[in-house]
Amino acid sequence: MNMNNVAPIPAQDLAFRSIESEAIHILRETAAEFRNAALLFSGGKDSAVIVHLASKAFWPSPIPFPLLHIDTEHNFPEVIAFRDDTAKRYGARLSVRSLEGSIERGTVVLGREDESRNPHQAVTLLEAIEEMKFDACIGGARRDEEKARAKERVFSVRNEFGQWEPRSQRPELWDLYNGRLSKGENMRVFPISNWTEADVWRYIAAENIHLPSLYFAHEREVVERSGVLVPITPLTPLKPREKPEMRSVRFRTVGDITCTCPVASTARTMDEILEEVIAARVSERGATRLDDQASDSAMEERKRAGYF
Amino acid sequence: MSDTNFLRAPLRVTTAGSVDDGKSTLIGRLLYDLDAVPIDQRQALERDMERKGRTIPDFALLTDGLLAEREQGITVDVAYRYFASTKRKFIIADVPGHEQYTRNMATGASRADAAVTLIDARRGVTVQTRRHLCISALLRVRTQIIAVNKMDLIGHDLRRFAAIRDEVADFSQRLGRPIPTAVPISALAGENVVHKSDQMQWYDGPPLLDLLDSAPGESFRLELPLRMPVQGVNRPQTTEHHDFRGYMGRIESGAMEVGQKISIYPAGLTTTITGIYVGSTQLQRADAPTSVTITVADELDVTRGDLIGDPANPPQVARKLAADLIWLDRAPLDLRRPYLIKHGARTHQAKVETLDHLLDITTLAEIEAEGQLATNEIGRVALRLGTDVSFDTYEANRATGALVMIDPATNATVAGGIIRGASA
User: Fold this and answer.
1) B169 - beta bridge partners?
2) Looking at A234-238, B116-120, B376-380, B404-408, which range is the least confident one?
3) What is the CATH number of the domain that holds B70?
4) Which residues in A lie closer than 8 A to residue B7 (C-beta atoms)?
């Protein structure tokens, strides 16, 4: 890609410079401290931002990490097309490991064919880590997303079962990250820990970062279930007596079709989205993720079980 | 919400206090009064109020994130919160007050521009208060604010507030630190947090939020000499950039310009900057805290961990350091064993040669060490490193004066360290 066309962040925008530089600092520490780190790429906006930051951190060298996508095969087609485009645009290596592979191996057993595949991604991720011998995985999680994530370290050690042990986290002082691992351990690295959803959008706008079209308002067939808009897809069909409606919606997160829902929105441009996000009154995960509504501590339980 | 708050670097704030002083309530109240609680979380608060028959929301529910904590009703780990006022953005480290978690206090304070220490107006200054003031002083948190909480429970008594304020002022002076600003509040009732209380006419100062809005941030780094630890050498070796050789790092203090003379430490080699890049954008000048890649005029042997500095204001170079270690690990310091020191972008082999004395964490007075440095204790040590280290004292520069110690057997981060100077 021709990076010279990208508008630089205005020099006076200290807030940006501070968090962009922090993320770049973390990515460079990751490249130096690990032998074989992967960048987890979901096709969502946060991982798109990380890919962009990595390309800036190491320019004119290529991104030193392969992009790893754990594909549930329950993705919106726009997201898959975007994933392939992004790898090409940034000249990055792309590895895809499919949940279907784990199902064939018998390591993932679905209770129901149509159940959410999100919780099972952990199995496929661990299998990919083992197969490709990754010692660290870079992710786009932010501390403002959810209460359990608010306590996450930037360098977060996972045990050999991929589990997060919140009570035995390493203290993280100053910006001195301890990247050392014992046998069987693996690191998760979160370069945009200190960003908020509004920061992410402002950065995407300032740096002209491409996103899947799902993030912008479009007409879509949906049905309202307990206050949440559920898109009508072959994987999430209408239930008896439900009436679908065409609504102007956009997605705030992208993930497994069966548990990712859009919000009503008419924001078709970056500026309109920014306006909407800055005024946002519902938390990102609360609005759009059915898997987080199950219980107040849903995320922590999944993290303990190895969910990214 | 206006957009101007994005124009300033976020202020990093740490909160401290004893276990029931109401830190989580205070942060919850800040979020709530600034309208930063999303609707779904607001609804969860209301459901909880209904279930428990409360009249004021249980704000701790917004911040105490882990299952284990909700079961015990205490915060066990540092949680980070993000919000913005009309003036700026804030990153708040919500630090647990339980004694065994003093290490978390050090974690929060290590990066903080400002510390808010909560004191329960009924209980006054406690051992834990003094401990937190000492750690903030030791870690050089620039802005100290004392929030005397639960004023509503003592009838908004001026004399009680003044007594606490004066005791803290006296204590801070004995620590050799500036006198903190004190503000009387009720986090639960929302008095003097975001909105000024009409219950305390005798208090003519601003509410807590205004104090945070006007606190100085990280801009003082610009006034310090140039320091940039080299995180890596960038050599693409592609046809397009065949001869490009850049040094990657974040400018931790000061500024740099194309054409400027710099030195690379510990070797002390001097060269001239020929290019400064952020991504592919070339800049004439850059300053802290920007992450950059620079090119220089001479072909030098520069590796990860070297420190780029201003030859007119050079860092010190030594093999032995005097440092104060804040011991974080369960296993105490073992003088016979080797450790690793991470400082800037370099990891050194190290041995602790001597443990000279401990610091009383409630007074910062020196006390005799009986050969032990255990969890939550602070001790002055002499460190011998395997390689030369280029550094500044912590007092002169936080970024080049701090280190962490790692146990190579367990890979645990066992201590945070503050460099006091070269050791004989």
Assistant:
1) none
2) A234-238
3) 3.40.50.300
4) 12-15
ipTM of the prediction: 0.91
- B160-166: long-range contacts at Cβ-Cβ below 8 A with a sequence spacing of 24 or more? B160/B121, B160/B124, B161/B121, B161/B203, B163/B124, B164/B119, B164/B121, B164/B124, B164/B125
Phi, psi (rounded to 5 degrees) for B352: -90, 115
d(CA A205, CA A201): 6
User: pTM for the full model?
Assistant: 0.89
Instruction: Determine contact, residues B43/B122, Cβ cutoff 8 Å.
Output: no
B184 plus B102 within the same structural domain: yes
Give A115-124 pLDDT, tens digit per residue: 777 777 888 8
- DSSP conformation class of B297: S
pLDDT score for A115: 72
pLDDT digits (tens, 9 = 90+) for B59-71: 777 665 545 555 5
Domain residues for the domain of B98 are 4-217
Question: How far is residue B197's CA from residue A77's CA, in Å, rounded to a whole number?
Answer: 55
Cα(A306)–Cα(B270) distance, integer angstroms: 49
B132 and B227 both lie in a single domain: no
Between positions 8 and 37 of A, the ones with CB within 8 A of B are 8, 12-22, 24-25, 28-29, 31-32
Q: Do residues B34 and B155 make contact, with C-beta atoms less than 8 angstroms apart?
A: no
Q: Which residues of B touch A19 (CB under 8 A)?
A: 10
CA neighbor of B330 nearest in space, from B69, B103, B72:
B103
For an interface test with B, give the residue of A1, A13, A18 to mutate (most B CBs within 10 A): A18
Please give the Cα distance from B256 to A90 (Å, whole number).
Answer: 29
Highest mean pLDDT among A10-14, B76-80, B277-281: B277-281
Q: Which pair of tokens denotes residue A159?
A: 């045990």
Among B267, B284, B309, where does a domain finish?
B309
Question: Which pLDDT score, from 0 to 100, does residue A4 have?
Answer: 38
Confidence of residue A297 (pLDDT cuts 50, 70, 90): very low
- B40 vs A175, A194, A287: nearest CB: A287
- For Cα atoms B416, B93, B147, give the angle at the middle one, nearest 5 degrees: 110
B36 vs chain A: nearest CA distance in angstroms? 8
Token pair 């890596």 is at which residue?
B232
Whether B347 and B248 share a structural domain:
no
Second-level CATH architecture of A3-195? 3-Layer(aba) Sandwich (3.40)
Average pLDDT (A70-99) is 90
CB B127 within 8 Å of CB B362: yes
- List A residues 99-158 in contact with B (Cβ-Cβ < 8 A): 143-144, 146-151
Residues B49 and B184 in one domain: yes
